[in-house]
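Following up on my earlier thread - several people asked me to post the actual chain instead of describing it. Fair enough. Here it is, all 365 residues.
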Amino acid sequence: MSKSTVWAIIGGGNGGQSLAGHLSIMGFRVRLYDVFPATVEAINAQGGIIVDGVVEGFGKPELVTTDIGAAIRGADAVMVVAPATAHKAIARNCAPHLADGQIVIIHPGATCGALEFRHVLDQTGCTAKVAIAETNSLIYACRSPKPGHASILGIKDDLVVATLPSRENARALAMLQEAFPQIVGGRNVIETSLGNANAIMHPTPTLLNTSLIESRHDWLYYWEGITPTIGAFTEELDKERVELGKSFGIDITPIRQWYAKAYGAKADTLSEAVRLNPAYEKIKGQKDLRTRYLLEDIPTGLIPMIELGDMMGLPMERRWLVAKLGAMILGEDFFNSGRTLANLGIEGMDREQFEHYLETGEKAA
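Reply from S.P.:
Thanks for posting it. Predicted structure:
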């Protein structure tokens, strides 16, 4: 049965192909854009996307293209499913094609993805009246072993969406719930931004497993890499995020309890919880430190949380320690290139001005 929302999926990687395939199987009209011609050609050659795992079927998007404008024009929802480090470039490329009334959904937004996307649109002179939504995580645990084939290993039971401005929350939520009724609405994009589990679960275990990464051993990231000691340190780091949420009047679910809500993995420690998540069973550890677990999740995860902590007068000692260690090991300038308050266009705002912006999308004069 055909559904009403027309979806433009921006990004043909693991998540993008999974969403395009699954939404098409559900009966939605879907357009899929990817920057790589080989991916587009492979999907078009076989007429769609094979989906397996917890979802089985053959999804047939109405358009698979390297023309981002063709994908966006006439769509109701423009869903960006790409690494957070690509969000700036995608925003610039989307800007000329967006139209009044569309909702851009950054899925997921990492931390402050909606704020960054809005700032880039403003910088480009985009005048389209669009709402920018973000989710706190990707709806799936998934992989795309090759173009035109998506394996959905698990679907989260709990996902939060919020919109900039927050007065558009209800409209974005209704659109997403047509496909995924388990998605719930957040207060504003700070709630979704602080719900970024990748910033908790990726940089710290990766850096503390450097010797394994640089060894010749095959290993499992979650099941072997998050030892009791690493898990305990990660839970302590996570407490900073929970306290930051409280400073904004938002209750953030601690990471171990989040696993219970999202995956039904209830345990007394984080190390035990990840082992109870069957979606993680086959996820292998990295062979190189220069992966998105550091290159993405530090500048677009840890850094904006540290910066928001500065805004609210809260120390982020463990976050700062991990971010600084990652920057020094990789030789990257994350503290200037990442999602700082200046790079988000919110530097100099006090809490009242910032919360006004979150609600209305308008900056104080």
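The mean pLDDT is 95. That should answer part of your original question.
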